[in-house]
Specification:
heterotrimer, A alpha/beta (240), B mainly alpha (314), C mainly alpha (329), A: 240 residues, alpha/beta, Rossmann fold, six-stranded mixed beta sheet, 40% helix, B: 314 residues, mainly alpha, ABC transporter involved in vitamin B12 uptake, BtuC, four-stranded antiparallel beta sheet, 12 helices, 71% helix
Chain lengths: 240, 314, 329
């Protein structure tokens, strides 16, 4: 698996949200994507997942250009994502939520197999007993887990998580952490956006730092921590 | 090449422009409602219709009542209906207590329209009502401009006194509304809520009260539009639908929530309808299609530039 | 002890009643007519609930598709000499094609914009039908030959009943299949559905095509039964009746919407002497239902029954297990 982001620019009107971002994800890496507010992190994930088309530059998956494809094609090709705000299908049961990606991906598949797989994943997320509940009756944390479960049903090669730890209590943080490491060991690449420095520095193997729509650092956490440009970006922000 | 009769066309355009002012006033009401409540009222035509009936019955009941006063009172009637409706049915929306708010807003305002329409039909019946001309023009002659009680003639172009009155009233009311919105405490409150509900609440503006007022004022404008136009048309319970559809066209054309957009949109629609009617050779068919031109513009705007001319980007 | 499954008892007796209605109403042909019209509205309301309640597309063009079915068949018969049956089949396809176009045009429109666009489409169609006097007969309407060579209403009754049952069965199958799953995921959150790989364009358009065809089919049959179609069927008031039926029945329930339509059509006829006051009450009921019973008035009853049976099944299962365990010991 190789995800290649090549010189991506994105302009909204006069605003340059992304200004020449390039990086490559090779194999099951665990990448943290950080940067001050408004640096373009969510915008970048929206470009990768096809919500926005880059004004210049392109995204390639395994050598094939995916930027310009609609989001559902990109999802089918193996890029799964969550959103900053949980977006479970509220008036559908947990099980139905889980079936959506599986059935979208395999139109000819047998429903029974998907149901079994869904129960298996729900057990892994310790929410199998909620399978027949409506998603809207779940707590915020449970909805977050449900989104992760949906992602596993989609079975993508690259998983992009937008702020998975934001507003989550410690117990759930552990579950999500465990989810990420376990799934990562199964051979999936992760790109995780987080404001939580401590978590992201410990969790990720590689850090990308965005500032003003540009990648200002790319490397192992220890190295990025010492990077003067990164320190300036963050300290500069604190000075405000 | 179609043979176009120029003076006929000019007459249509003049007519279209005059009616356009009323449509603009109505659309201004919709826009006011939309910018504060984020709701498109699908009962707007019914408020227009009720405003017309209110003026008609007021003038019937109190002979000698000044037409302007009748229009104001008609506006008060629709304001009351709108405010009560908002309080009962839209309050949960403003309090964010409703699931699927978009769907609810469409259906419940649609339901109100349905209810008011049949209520009027049940109370008044389907027979058209007609009100006498509000004001007579003073007869004069000034070069190419001549006037009789019923018509003002600019050269060969006749303007009906009734429509002229309605247009003047509409323009006056629009200026009053602009003054209220931009120069008064109430207007500041409405604008604050339309921009940021939470922030408005923090500075001591009650967003719930502003929602009720905005809806009431929006329906009041629809009612006064109807009251101003009642002498121009045979008034029936279904009279609101075409007018409402036109005001929808206008707010989409002008951009949802934009007051200048609503005003310009109203005039554009008036003129386009006139031109469309004038350019079709068969007059019967041309008249039947008159309302369709607005829709076509509407469809095009929705498909090509859903923001409209002046809409803010959502 | 074996418990009665009330679901089947109710469904069975409703079906028995529906099938035997022509005999029960043999002295009252007018009420048989009311039943036919009620089934026609039931098809419209339930197919609209599939489009709006399931797929989340609040279209006001449903009566327009119905009219395309009706006028399509009538005009094909008038100009091409097609038989009513051929006409109905072709105009059903035509309604589907127009549904395809409207669906594609509506892809980017949401909420109130979609509602406004579909109202505009419906109004333009109505104005055109009114204006093109020479072709459509204008406001006087278009005469259609009868579909069945009979003067009795009974065959039409069974035809419309079959149409209702078949379309309900088809829509239930659809709603339970992955189509229904995708429809609802789009209704809930289009962007999230796309991120889960759902081909949102295809399924949104498909929802329009399918429901337009059902409406067109019902329209064609109804028009040949009545023998006349006028542009008046396209006024917003007519569309609001269908919407009110679906909302009062339960907008997310196909069966709820159908039952709502039948009950409302019958009560409108029963209360005939009240004139327009019926519709006043009906409009008020619509608003109050929306405000205080969002899931409609019929659907919660159905849901309660299904839940009751499900609980019964669980309890019975437990009892049986306990019994087996007792026997085993």
């Amino acid at each position: 698996m190789e995800l290649d982001v090549r010189d991506v620019h994105l302009h909204f009107g006069g605003i340059r949200a992304l200004n020449g971002v390039s990086f490559t994800v090779r194999g099951p890496e665990l990448i943290g994507l950080i940067g001050p507010n408004g640096a373009g992190k969510t915008t970048l994930t929206n470009v990768i997942s096809g919500v926005y088309k880059p004004s210049k530059g392109a995204v390639y998956l395994n050598g094939e250009r995916i930027s310009g494809l609609p989001p559902y094609h990109i999802a089918r090709r193996g890029i799964g994502r969550t959103f900053q705000v949980t977006r479970a299908f509220r008036r559908m049961t947990v099980l139905e939520n889980m079936l959506v990606p599986a059935m979208a991906l395999h139109p000819a598949g047998r429903r029974q197999e998907f149901v079994e797989r869904a129960h298996e994943i729900l057990r892994f997320l310790t929410m199998d007993h909620l399978a027949l509940e409506y998603a809207r009756s779940l707590s915020g944390g449970q909805q977050k887990l449900l989104e992760l479960g949906r992602l596993l049903m989609l079975d993508p090669d690259v998983i992009i998580l937008d702020e998975p730890f934001a507003g989550v209590h410690p117990k759930l943080r552990e579950t999500i952490w465990e989810f990420i490491t376990t799934v990562h060991q199964q051979g999936k690449a992760f790109i995780i956006i987080s404001h939580d420095m401590e978590t992201i520095f410990t969790l990720s193997q590689r850090l990308l730092v965005l500032n003003f729509g540009q990648l200002i650092a790319d490397g192992p956490p220890e190295q990025v921590k010492e990077d003067p440009a990164v320190i300036e970006a963050y300290l500069g922000k604190e000075d405000e | 090449m179609v043979d176009i009769n120029l003076s006929f066309l000019l007459r249509l355009i003049a007519d279209g422009l005059l009616i356009g002012f009323i449509y603009a006033l109505m659309a201004m009401g919709l826009t006011l409602i939309f910018s504060v409540l984020r709701v498109v009222s699908f009962a707007h035509g019914e408020h227009y219709m009720i405003g017309g009936y209110a003026a008609y019955y007021l003038l019937e009941a109190f002979t000698g009542l000044h037409p302007l006063l009748a229009i104001l009172l008609a506006g008060t009637v629709t304001f009351t209906i709108g405010a009560i409706f908002e309080r009962i049915f839209l309050r949960p929306l403003a309090e964010e207590k409703v699931e699927r708010p978009g769907e609810y807003a469409i259906l419940v305002t649609f339901g109100l329209g349905f209810f008011l329409q049949y209520l009027t039909l049940a109370l008044i019946g389907p027979h058209p009502k007609k009100t006498a001309r509000y004001f007579d023009l003073p007869a004069f002659e000034l070069g190419p401009i001549t006037a009789t009680a019923a018509t003002l003639k600019l050269g060969t172009i006749p303007l009906s006194a009734t429509r002229l009155t309605a247009a003047v009233i509409a323009v006056l009311l629009m200026f009053v509304m602009l003054y209220v919105i931009h120069r008064t405490w109430l207007g500041r409150g409405l604008r604050a809520v339309s921009q940021d509900k939470q922030a408005a609440a923090v500075v001591g503006i009650n967003p719930l009260r502003m929602s009720t007022l905005a809806f009431g004022m929006g329906t009041m404008l629809a009612g006064m539009s109807g009251a101003a136009l009642v002498p121009a048309f045979a008034w029936v319970p279904a009279v609101g639908a075409p007018a409402a559809v036109k005001s929808y066209v206008i707010i989409v054309l002008g951009g949802m929530g934009s007051i200048p957009g609503a005003m310009l949109g109203g005039l554009i629609i008036g003129v386009v309808e006139a031109l469309g009617t004038g350019l079709l050779p068969d007059p019967n068919r041309a008249f039947a299609y008159r309302d369709a031109y607005g829709m076509l513009i509407f469809a095009l705007v929705l498909l090509l530039r859903p923001r409209g001319l002046f809409g803010r980007q959502e | 002890m074996k418990h009665v499954d009330w679901r089947w008892v109710l469904t069975g007796s409703a079906l028995a009643l529906a099938v035997s209605a022509p005999f029960l109403l043999s002295g009252y042909p007018y009420w048989l007519h009311v039943a036919i019209v009620a089934y026609f509205y039931a098809i419209l309301a339930s197919s609209w609930s599939l489009l709006a309640g399931h797929a989340g597309q609040f279209s006001f063009a449903h009566m327009a598709f119905m009219a395309i079915g009706a006028y399509g068949s009538g005009l094909m018969g008038k100009y091409w000499g097609t038989s009513p049956l051929t006409g109905i089949v072709l105009s059903t396809v035509l309604a589907g094609l127009v549904g395809l176009i409207i669906g594609v045009l509506c892809l980017r429109l949401k909420g109130a914009y979609l509602a406004l666009f579909t109202i505009a489409f419906s109004e333009v169609l109505r104005l055109t039908l009114n204006a093109e006097l020479d072709i459509t007969g204008g406001p006087n309407g278009l005469d259609l030959p009868p579909l069945l060579a009979t003067t009795s209403r009974v065959p039409y009754y069974y035809l419309m009943l079959t149409l209702l049952l078949v379309s309900l069965g088809f829509m239930y199958w659809l709603a339970g299949s992955r189509f229904g799953l995708f429809f609802r995921s789009i209704r809930e959150d289009e962007e999230a559905a796309a991120a889960m790989g759902v081909h949102i364009v295809r399924y949104k358009v498909l929802a329009f095509v399918i429901t337009a065809m059902i409406a067109g089919l019902a329209g064609g049959v109804e028009a040949h039964y009545i023998g006349l179609i006028t542009p008046n069927i396209l006024i917003l008031g007519q569309m609001s009746i269908v919407i009110a039926m679906a909302v009062i029945g339960g907008i997310e329930s196909l069966l709820g919407a159908a039952i709502g339509a039948i009950l409302i059509q019958f009560s409108l006829e029963l209360l005939r002497e009240l004139g327009n006051w019926r519709l006043v009450a009906f409009g008020l009921l619509l608003m109050l239902t929306l405000r205080f019973a969002r899931n409609g008035l019929i659907y919660p009853l159905i849901e309660r029954l299904v839940l009751y049976q499900a609980r019964r099944a669980v309890i019975e299962g437990r009892e049986q297990k306990a019994k087996q365990a007792g026997e085993g010991a």
